[in-house]
Model the fold of this input.
Amino acid sequence: MTSLVRLLRWPSLACAVFVSAAILVCATAVAPLFLAGAGSAIFEEYAVGQGADGAVTIANDGTFSADVANYRERLVVESAPDQLGEPRRTMIGAESFMQGRGGGYAARPIFRSDALDQVERLTEGPGHGVWISSFLAERMDAGPGDTVELGSNPSVEIEVAGVFRDLLELPRSDFWSPLDNLIYQRPTEQLRPPDPLIVDRATFFDIENSLGDFRGESRWEFPVDAGNMTLSEATEAAAATSRWAAILRDPTTEPGTAMLTANFVSLLAGWAELAEGAVTAISGPVDMLSFGGQAVALLVIAGSGFFIVGRRRTEYMLLHARGISPLRLGFGAAVEGLLPVAAGAALGGAVAWLWLEAAGPDGLFGRAVALEAARAGAVVAGASLVLLGASVALAVRAQAHEGFGRVGRSAARVPWELLILVLAAASLYELLTRGVTPVEGTEDAVPRMDRLVILFPILFLTGAAGLASRTLRRGLPRLRAAGGGWPPALYVATRRLASTGRSAAALVTAATVAIGMFAYSAIISSSAEATASQHSLLRVGSRVSASISAPPRVLDSADFANTPVIRYAGARLGTDATNAIDVIAVDPATFDEAAYWDSRFSDVSLEELLTRIDGDTGEDVPAVVVGSAPDATLLQISSYDVPIEVVGRAETFPGVLEGRPLIVVAREPLTQALAANDASLRIGEGDFQVWGNSTPSEMKTALTTAGESVHTLLSAAELRDTPPFLALTWTFDLLEALGVLIGLVALVGMFLYLQTRQREQQVSYALGARMGLERSSHRLSIGIEMTGMLGASVLLGLVLAIIVTVPTHDHIQVFSDSGSVPLVQIPTPALALAAAVVLAAAWVGAWFVQREADRTDVAQVMRLAR
Amino acid sequence: MKIYWTASGEVHALKGIDAVFPSRSVTAVVGPSGSGKSSLLRILAGLDLATAGAVTIGGTNVAGAKARALRKVRRRFTGYVFQRPSDNLIPYLTVEGHMRQAARLRRTKLDSNSLLEQLGLQGRARHKPDQLSGGEQQRLAFAQAVVGNPYMVVADEPTSELDSRSAAALLETVSSLTDLGVSFVLSTHDPEVVKMADRTLHLRHGALEAESHEMRTLSVIDHSGRIQLPPGALELFPDRRGVIQVDSEGVRITPP
Done:
């Protein structure tokens, strides 16, 4: 029992073991928890973004009589997997005509679960019947209580129960989007799709029976509770859904017989696959980060063993002299370390959990993953105890001059720093020869990040730091000859540094690696954030982009910069049908103020490019070619030929989409060219947009004020919340968090060093004090000593981190086809703060050492000190 | 023989020592600094290996023993007392705790009270090392070393950091402990230690120069016939050449 608490007599040593164990278990546990959480969170993002309410859709032509419909529905619902929720039922009647006082209008009855909760009710009557849109109500001059006639020979008279706002006047809603083709898609601008007549289930069947027309569609949309599913549960649900689909297609089963011609669409498998792909894409770097954290923590634990022997040298040498083997002493140390390691492991696991809850992916871990993480944490905690014992045994052998045998002596001669640097060089070579874009990125999938992006810096920092500290060890003894006339504090500090040798080198190595890893992680995270930010702004074109229904114009009433843009997707460059290209027509007068631009996008300024496309080139429309598209003289937009003259090129341009080349023209010349072909800007699939340097709500307000109806709003910030971005953002957050943890090692190392040196130099301080060395001078000397070493570590760590960023930052350019330029952003405030914290800790440590020294009983020190 | 290999070359710490250390005796080892006293003691204590020659402790030759065997020797057969009193004691153990630990390591039962009384430490059983004087600490160190009745206890200058009264008390303790059958070997510069020792070995330049016993000092002749002249006699032979005359009464060495 006493062995378990013995190490607590030396709080500094127990603390070092405790903190190291916490870092070790945190780094170990965080990886599986992070990946599991990321997987379920990404699954949820995909599901919510693409309609979790309709994860599985079964659509069947025909609406049937009530009895048949009920029978088929029972078969569908009862055979559905348990993982799916209660379905949303929809029955869509055949298109018909509604006759009223204002004439006849196309309409179709629709029953959809909870439909009346998803419309804006304008007027309502007490009766029971059909809800019509405000468009129909206005033109037919009908309201609640009026009777309208649907169909013609046969026809049916139905009472109007209420009026709801025309859905085309409102932004698309998630509820009605599954019926997009019936409600929102106009055949032409002048024609509307048949207006929905919202009815309840019984009324629907009455109408169908009266009209005798069952040509409609029955649909069931099964939701999935994406927010409460782990990825493995989602994968299981997808598999169950696939089995269900097979049953519904099997004519030998009752459901299959009834639903043989149904159209079965399940998005679950796709979402699960994408989420698994995301986890795979980030698992490499996440594993490397975990490995880096574990390696640093294990090194500190090993170092703690040497510090333990140094601190308790008398005890260990005495026991060794009495014939106790180093192994047995190491075992004893492992037993003593059990409590600090256990406590540290618990803390590390808790920190991992809490960090993921607070700042990590907002996904579920699942019990199995949590148990696996706990098991892994327990294993490494056990390994750390073994390592602690082994390092104590080695330290005892070294102190007792037992040596390490031939193998040990040979091992000590191996220049490990050079070996590590060779490995670093090999990993760098591998990284560079894989090409600039080892990352694969597509519109929907998560780009994969090479794990060498993490491994190479770890190796390089460790090897370079080791070499640097070895050089320092050679140079420090020369300080003995220096500074004969220096002030006492500086003189004492230089003498202390000259005498430290091995322990100073160890501290400098550990602190340099820790600070270097922290700085690298901060630089890479910051750079990736900046690059991702640039990418999203390029995609959207500005902070916000809104799609509207009419050709856009400048919003004069808006108090933010905005510009109208028309995008034509799927145009053709030249006569070659394979040269698919996007075209955007911009307003040169307002574009440069509202659109996002970086001078690195082109050799020519944006102003110059806009001037060129606004210039007069005769009948040809001036055009800027973006990306890899070839020069050409003809553009085809929706079968209309537009002659162009290329007046400039750009590497990238606002509005460019990944992997798709772009042509930029000015709106007015394009309008004239289309007019020459008896066409207008409304040709084909033109997307009318307004870009603005605003928030989504400001844009919507401005558009509504201008009388425009908004179809969609997209902001650069929202784009960064899509799964491909999120997975990477979380990974870089993890990189930063582990970087901070590893950075703590620098402080732990400093703490151990101070403790060891203080004990070593109690006698010299006691004698020095008796000979007139002032307290302030002694404290200053410690501060100078620590500032010197940690300052060197900070400087070296930062320099090495910047050096190692140069070849690697290209390889986190995860959006290779977007044309965005990889950015290197050095988070100077964060790094300066970290440096200040480390150096402040040095002075705080000096203060504590002085306080301990002041409490020392000189007589006792002389009697008991080594 | 003991040779150390260093970066600057070989160091011959011991150049052939032939000696016997009887039980129930105290042997003092004296000599100037660098004469090999510490090296001899470390070999006797099983802390180091002789480069050549035989080292027999309790009938067991430990000369070429491996580390494991040497540890067994240290556990069972020998005890070592460091020069500095504090180096012999663990700061967090009481006096009684030290004795119990020593007994546990030697796998022996212990009547700590009588031993502490014999050493004049009765009443200090619950005290920690920082509560003891230097002399008390060193007496405790010797007490631990003799637990389990080892063949030999080796002490490196045990009185060097003690005042004269404490040193005297310690020597009295050591003398009383020989009754346990232990052979004590003490390296020293202290004439009081030499005075109370049963024998004194004089080392110089790694070799055994002379041996003192019962008021007589005998020069040591090694197995190859070499003998070390006392430093004062060397002045008679400035050329380091002499004439040896051997007759029935002895050997006579005169300058040429």
